[in-house]
Amino acid sequence: MRRPGLVGHPYDWDVRAHRLGMLLLVMSLAAACGGAAGGPASSGSNGPTAPAAPTSVGASPSTAPPAVLAEVLTRVDVADQPDPVLLTHGSIWVGHYQANGLERVDPASGRVIDTVPARSPIDLVEAFGSVWAVELTADRVARIDPSTGRVVDRIAVGREPDGIAAGFGSIWAVNQLEGTLSRIDPGNGKVTGTFPLQGTPLYATAAFGSVWVTDTDGNQVMRIDPKTGKTIANVHTDAVPIHVLAVGSALWVTTFEGGTLQRIDPGTNRVTASVAVGDGADGLLLHDGSLWVTTDRANTVVRVDPAGPAVLRVWDVGTQPHNGVFAKGSFWTAAFDDGKLLRLSLP
């Protein structure tokens, strides 16, 4: 995801936090006066005609155990600001926010074995026999042969693509600065549709017959019809939703300012459960029956039981962990501030 205070960033997260605080203050004052006024509050959404959903479900009381220190087993030097990581074809692929190059790391040796030329590869997905990377500063998507590491195609999309997903026979690129969603045909490498989105779209996933896109300014997840590109529902979440992941019969989303992991019912398009996981909740993956969250501000890795949901374990990484994967019996995470890929033991 985009980071606070970085030069060239289209909006400053510290300013966003101030605005959010002011908004919450206004909302609390309005709520205090609401009893006297007695009028219903507007949802403020400019979205589709889907029924309005509640702003959020309160996070369950924290019963998380105290954090224990994660042991760093290996530090792998990579380019600056590592962010997305992907495990495929025996390698860990490491992308970056505002740095170039996509490294392939051998998890057995902990060494970089190849670097694919790519400009700010900020998100990755494996699909249709290829690795696909959005190139943030080049306004394009790169298609990479995972067996050779060679870029076999580059497809122009909208301005500053930040998220990428695969589903319904297509690749989907979320163009954050432009506020659009590009649909790519992997058969011919052509963009077959560009659809308007609301707010500031970030990441996406394809599941339950739809493409789901987080909107960091609107505090919502948008549900998109993959055939028409129209927004068919808005699911209101805690502040600044980031990553969204389909697991079983539900959708899960991390909220950066909310510090929560929230469950979405795709049948009702509503948040049905929420659990506090820590400030700056960001990365999200499924492993060994649990959901694993990385927190950018609390500097932790959090294991969550989705049945609760409930926090099972918390590990202090000691630096800012971004997305992670499990490989060779260890958890690997991108240390954004340090320019390293870390191999962790989570006791």
Which helices and strands, and how do they pair?
Blueprint: H1 13-37, E1 68-69, E2 71-77, E3 82-88, E4 91-96, E5 102-106, E6 111-116, E7 121-127, E8 130-135, E9 140-145, E10 150-156, E11 161-167, E12 170-175, E13 180-185, E14 190-196, E15 201-207, E16 210-215, E17 220-224, E18 231-236, E19 241-247, E20 250-255, E21 260-265, E22 270-276, E23 281-287, E24 290-295, E25 300-305, E26 310-316, E27 321-327, E28 330-335, E29 340-345
Parallel strand pairs: 1-26
Antiparallel strand pairs: 2-29, 3-4, 4-5, 5-6, 7-8, 8-9, 9-10, 11-12, 12-13, 13-14, 15-16, 16-17, 17-18, 19-20, 20-21, 21-22, 23-24, 24-25, 25-26, 27-28, 28-29
Can I get a quick summary?
With 347 residues, the protein is mostly beta strands.
Which structural class should the secondary elements be placed in? mainly beta
Give the rounded overall mean pLDDT.
87
User: Uncertain regions: pLDDT < 50 for 5+ in a row?
Assistant: 3-27, 29-55
Nearest-angstrom radius of gyration?
A: 20 Å
Q: What fraction of the residues are assigned to beta strands by DSSP? A: over 45%
Distance between the termini: 28 Å
How many beta-strand elements?
29
Query: Helix tally?
Result: 1
Q: Largest beta sheet: what is the strand line-up?
A: 1-26-25-24-23
